[in-house]
Amino acid sequence: MSTMPPGHDTTGGQVFRDRRDAGRFLAGLLEQYRCDPAVLVMGVAPGGLTVAFDVARELCAPLDTLVVRKLMVGQLPTTPPRGAAGLALGAVAGGGTVVLNDDVVRGLRLAPELIERLVEIERRELRRQEEELRSGLPPAEPAGRTVILVDDGLSTGVALHAAVLSLRRARTGRIVVAVPAAPASSCQLLDALADGVVCATTPSPCSAVGPSSWGGVASRDTGVRDLLRAASATRLPAGSGVFRTEPAIVRAEAVAAGGGIPPDDALFALVGDADMVLLGAAAHGTFEFHAARAAMTRRLIEERGFTAVAVPADWADASRVNRFVRGLGAGTDGPSESSVTADAAVAAAGTDAAGGADVCAEDALRAFAHFPGWMMRNRVVADFVAWLRERNDRFGGYEPAKAGFYGLWADEGTADADPRHPIFGGSTTWWNAGERRMADALDDLMARLAHHRSAPTKIVVWAHSSHVGDAAATELAALGRVSLGQIVRARYPGRCRLVGLTTYAGAVTTAENWGSPATSTELSPALPGSLEEIFHEVGETDFLIAPRGRSWATEALASARLQRAVGILHRADGDPRDGYFRARAADQFDAMIHIDRTHPLRPLDEPTAPDAPDVPGVPAREPAHVHPARPGGPTR
Description:
Blueprint: E1 2-3, H1 19-29, E2 39-45, H2 47-59, E3 63-72, E4 88-93, E5 97-100, H3 102-108, H4 112-134, E6 146-150, H5 158-169, E7 174-181, H6 184-193, E8 196-201, H7 221-233, H8 246-253, E9 255-256, H9 264-271, E10 276-281, H10 287-304, E11 308-314, H11 315-326, H12 361-364, H13 379-393, E12 404-409, H14 414-420, H15 428-451, E13 459-464, H16 465-468, H17 484-491, E14 496-510, E15 519-523, H18 531-536, E16 542-545, H19 552-557, E17 560-564, E18 580-584, H20 585-588, E19 591-598
Parallel strand pairs: 1-8, 2-3, 2-6, 6-7, 7-8, 10-13, 10-14, 11-12, 11-13, 14-19
Antiparallel strand pairs: 3-4, 4-5, 9-16, 14-15, 16-19, 17-18
Helix pairs in contact: 1-2, 2-7, 4-7, 10-13, 11-13, 15-17
């Protein structure tokens, strides 16, 4: 039976960092074989043995190798037709097994004696290569055992076909083929030969899996020989389990963060001298994600000189909030809209329906009227906006000291389309255009604010993790997609920090259909093998983990794993596997904050929405803050 992981089963490009990373991911798909004394992992040398090493290590199983030699048309002593030299006409494996590709043999009208001569040459080479790889190590006995046969990928499947037949002749009990990538058609053919096929990805369009799939790096016999010997020397006794588990590694390096809010020393050490901090959330409608971002932003504004908050929203909508927090009244005789300053562009905004200045945060947030307005128009953002106004008022008319609130969409209505656009599927062109537009707006905001400040300009960005995380470290890169965080990293190397917030289970504010009222939806426990499940097993309710350098945590979180992403629309009765994608978290983010159980966000306009829970470091709901409009705003 063929097995694919949940999520997208059709990708292209390089999903895994290398063969070792692919092996760790495959081990997660083979969890049912962990510590089974009947299991033997065999890697098809050389590339498959590199993948198999980590499969065997994670499953606590012995490792052996199976050498297979392909018969290539280009090896024949005759001149092949143009373009045919790279075709595999068959393969040879141990026990005298020979498999021929009849289509190639007939199509090229190859003489039997030529094929027999090539088969004999490759059989001798097979024996030589096997002796060199083993270096005196005895072969494992596969008879009666469950053999997990691992290769680093396949195109036609002829080599694995020969390997499976060779194992059948050795009276193997069961054979499970495991590969990181293969065309769906090849998986189906192998499924008819083996007892099971596990494939991590099925590239589309289909192409041969070779060194190009692993960043141009081919496996060499010398390297895999060392892996085979290392596996023999460090083999754990059957049933012993894994002594240093990934949750234990994360637990050792994690920093407790009540409510998702790290202590100041950990937060400031993470941020360092960065000019931009992007705070991403795995769901739009999670109270703790919003509250933690607001609390961290307060600390960065108060203690680290950050002067702007940027959100994926219409510039005009956010500018009304910006005028409120800066105390700019209606009809201010400030700089004109043609000025280069960021604040000048909002001179006409910030008025209520009667034309007067907004007097409280809730009024200013009425600008977010289009669906899903509750992403901004909610209790947490209202309290943050009220605090920002009070903080700015302390500086009177000294505008450079004040912090602002800005949108990353220049034209009205675009932000409405942005959250509606699905993270998975949909138009890659549309997605990429939106990410680049936000990045350009961020560049422009940075330049405009820097023009009128002597101190460094520092910005905090709030967005969904699908925007904040580096898409190059996710399977979305295989679809040709980029992300805001990826672009910012390239434009501001060393000057930005990408932080992702995750959760294991709880509830979330979503909508069942586009334009529907906000509702509270249960969030089922994260899928087995996912990043969120590993974080759940750490045993700490809320924590910060910032893998750096060559640490244990970096290694543990650098493998491709399933990761959750909840959008605007979410149904509790939907397929629990929906909304997951594969990512290498250590490369995707500079740090992650995990909040094990979360609650739904409370929209301001939803009286039936549940009250927000008490979170350490986050003040309880405050009454509406009313501020008299200051006549005659400041001029520069």
